[in-house]
Amino acid sequence: MITGGTPLAAACALIVVSAASLGAQQSSGCRVQLDSVGGTGRYEEIRPGVVRQYGSGGVWASCRNQRTAIYADSVAWYSDLARVDFIGRTRFEDSTVLLHADRASYYTRDERLEAYGMVRLLNLRTGTELRGPNLKYWRAIEGVRDTSDLVASDRPTVWYRQEQERGDTAAPEPYVIVGQRVRLKGEGRAWAAGSVTVSRSDLRASGDSAELDLDNGTGRLLGGAQIEGRGERAYTLSGERVVFRLEERRLRWVQAQGAARAVSEDWDLAADTIEFYIENQRIQNGGAWGRENRPKAVSSSYTMEADSLAIDAPDQRLREIRGFGKALALAYGGREGGEPDWVAGDTLVAHFDTASSGERAMRELDARGHARAYYRVYEEDGRTLAGINYSRGARIKAIFTDGSLHRVHVIGEGDGIYLEPRRRP
Question: Which burial class, exposed, middle or buried, applies to 242 when counting CB atoms under 10 A from its CB (0-12, 13-18, 19+)?
Fold first, then answer.
């Protein structure tokens, strides 16, 4: 049976009955009903028990016995597909989310909402917002699923927030996530894939894929991963994989794994694995280790390498580097060309201070265990070579002035050789 120009009240009633009969099998799900139709309604019976119904001219609908409000320019209900289509200026709101889209479809069997064209979804509890060309949203419905799930593609943008804590006077700053495909599960977990970026005022991260778990305060980046600390003292940490921890919504610990590299104003550090502890957006301390990529720290005037390195840098000002296992330090002393001076040992401890130039420079270097030192001695003018010294001992301590070697102490039993240049006639 087909009817055209059905009176509005009758059209509404028809859809209520049809949707209610389907919802009887899923009492906790959404039983869609039309509340008002601004234009015309139409009812079609395709075959016994299978109907299709339409409303136009501005339609308001809702889920029976649920806090929902749905609006669209037009609505179509297909009982055989268990689907309601909302076409033109669609708005969907329940107790959790508010959705705006050009068009949407609601699948009553699995409580799935699909939206297309200028999509905007807002989580009313946390403030998380998604904007993009499409999404699929599985509602949290008692008896169906206990956690909502959302998937969006074609590079949506997500402003990802946690629920505001008691006592907070301002809304929490969001993590801005952009990727080819994004998934949000519940209110605390997010995944993204395809040239992903995650940014906020204190950091910017990127990778082939990313995961952010605000419930547990953890995250990770995979494939060409990089994280940049923003602020007065910026730094960059990169690797094949980067994992991090958050406390009180701030970055507290970060580790790069696989061909790791860290760059700051004081050093350029490379290793298999590098990790830092962060406070107030600044590196405080950290470490580096590896076999394929032996840890190496480089600055404008020195290089230090070992089987593993430990770094102390309060407020991201380098204070001490400790090298363990076949440790070696090279000092260039500002001289261009030629071989550097060096100190080696089983263990090296390098202390740093601010030089007259304002840069962090090595102040003292302490080598222990099979300690060796090779260095040049210059005349008072600082340019004329006076001799070359090679020393060995149980312990060697080198003292530097403005990054240049000043004197060397061999402590305990030791030996060495001192060579002077041949004098010209």
Answer: buried
